[in-house]
Every structure is written in C-alpha cells, then in structure tokens.
Amino acid sequence: MFLPSQFRHRLWETRRFLSLVMDYLLQPTLPRMTETHRTPFVALLENKLAVLEVELVKKKILRRCTAEYSHFHDGRGRIWLLWLTNLINIVVLRSSDQYVHSEVTLKDSGLRFLLTITYGSNSPAERLVMWDDIISLAQHISIPWLVGGDFNEVRFTNEKMGGRALQTGRLTRFNSCIEQCSLFDIHTAGNSLSWNNRQANRIACRLD
Question: Which InterPro entries match (predicted)?
C-alpha cells in the first residue's frame, strides 16, 4: 500500500455520535487535530448515523470541512470522508457500501494520488465482492494509490489472538487481492493488533 510522505492522515473509528458527544468532543477536537498535526483529511468509519442526523453533524461540526458519505449505498453511513478544502481537493470516483475510491490533490504541491477507504462487511461473501472491486480498480491505476481502512480480515495467522481458528481460504483470498493489485503493506507503529472485543475471553486482530 502506498502513502505519499507529504500527506498525513488519520483514520478514526467511532461507534455512535450523540448530540452532546459531538458538541463536547468532536467540535474542539477536529480543528485541533487538523491545525496541530496538519491533518487535512479524516475518514470516519462505523459512525451509524441516520441520514437525517447527517445534516445536524454538518451544521454543528463540519462547517470548515467538505464531506462525502456512503449513505447512498448504505443508510447507516458506514464511511465518511472529511477534508479541509483550503489544503486538499478530493473527488470521489467510485463507491459502494464497503469502500469509497477517490482522487486526492494536494493544493500546495499539486501532488495527485488515489485513495480507497475500506470498511469490510462482516459477511465473508460480501468481502469477496470488495476484493473483486479493488482488483477491478487496480486495472486503471496510473498514479500512486493508497488503500486503507478496516478490511475486517487479517493477512497472516499471527495477526489474530484468541477466538475461532482462522479459515486459511479467507486469508488466501485477501492476500491474493493485495498481490494482484501490486500493493504493499505499510508497517504499523505501536500495537499491531488494532481491534479487540473488550471482553474477558479476549480476541484481538489486526483489521486495518
């Protein structure tokens, strides 16, 4: 997977926005993140906002940002893209309920690259559709390309701890997608097992 060094991004996952939480947490946080860390782009995954709630979020929080949502494909709005238009421009080229594929341009340098944000379905069969779509996207890539997000799948057996045994066929299909697209994995910093079930019988995985 390719990430231009000039572009710093953060992938945020949140389970539910409530009005008070939005006012108290996100409104001061997003500007501080973008100004302190120069983060012109944020992807929000699994926000579970209804379509009508989106307008509230836009009015209260996103006045400084442009946003794209996946509500057209899924009423739960699984993927949001937010960015500061004075720093970057994003054009959505293709999307589904599991990914948003865009072209990004950095305004200060003119650098262009493609960005695909994923949020894989819990259904292995539906994830197969996403792998096929990503392979299809790869056939038309002529500039740098970053694929990131929550794939809801692991690549190797050491990327999961606890729970049911991994199905090697699913790992094979995920790795085949990566290889066919000529992508490579960006090394992680910190705990490589990015998700856990937060229960006594702990299960932890690397899903992003």
Answer: Endo/exonu/phosph_ase_sf
pLDDT value at residue 7: 42
The single residue listed with the structure tokens 């231009």 is: 4
Q: How many residues does the chain have?
A: 208
Residue-level pLDDT at 82: 78
* Closest alpha carbon to 176 in 141, 142, 143, 127: 127
Are the CB atoms for 81 and 90 separated by under 8 Å? yes
Q: Say what the pTM is.
A: 0.74
| Token pair listed for 52 | 């009508």
CB count within 10 Å of CB 100 equals 26
**DSSP codes, 114-167:** EEEEEE--SSHHHHHHHHHHHHHHHTT--S-EEEEEE-S--SSGGGEESSSPP-
Q: Using alpha carbons, list the distances in angstroms from residue 147 to 1, 3, 13.
A: 6, 9, 16
- Burial (0-12, 13-18, 19+ Cβ within 10 Å), 96: buried
Q: Which domains does the chain have, with CATH numbers?
A: 10-205 (3.60.10.10)
Contact (Cβ atoms closer than 8 angstroms) between residue 120 and residue 127: yes
When pLDDT is cut at 50, 70 and 90, the band that residue 135 belongs to is very high
